[in-house]
Write a structure and sequence with these properties.
- An eight-stranded antiparallel beta barrel has the order 1-3-4-5-6-7-8-9.
- It contains one helix and nine strands.
- By secondary structure, the protein is α+β, with helices and mostly antiparallel strands.
Length: about 160
Amino acid sequence: MQKVALGRRIASAAATASLLGALGVAGAAPALAAVPAPLSFTIDYTRNTSIPQTPSLGAGFAGNGPVLDSSGRVIGRTFDTCGIDGVEGPTRMDADCGAYVVFNNGDELDLSTQAVIDANPMDYPYRFKAVVEGGTGEYNGARGDATVTAERPGVYKVDVKFT
């Protein structure tokens, strides 16, 4: 009789441990966040502060400017830093840039890119890609990519698709 009772206790303990382990694993699994809806906005660095005004090879620059919706309303601000790591010609340079957009509601979207920046107004518009690297609020943990259209010097239309 003691063998049967001991066997039942061991089986019961093993079942309880298995159940707790399964619940622990299930409870530890992170909840999947909803993928944000596609987003479009324009960044206008012509109304910015940029340091220095004329970047050079090996140096960097930083800037900021308003973020506008399709109606031209200010919906936030952007802040960026770029390092110049190549020269493509007299008016074109390779830049490694990180930018974050802070929307009026406090949410932040972080983007980065390795792109050619062109200072010749005759070469516009041109496009390059950027990577979504998360953010805060609605964009916490967000991933995806953006197509950036340089419409004219200092003005960029950004179309973001989240994955």
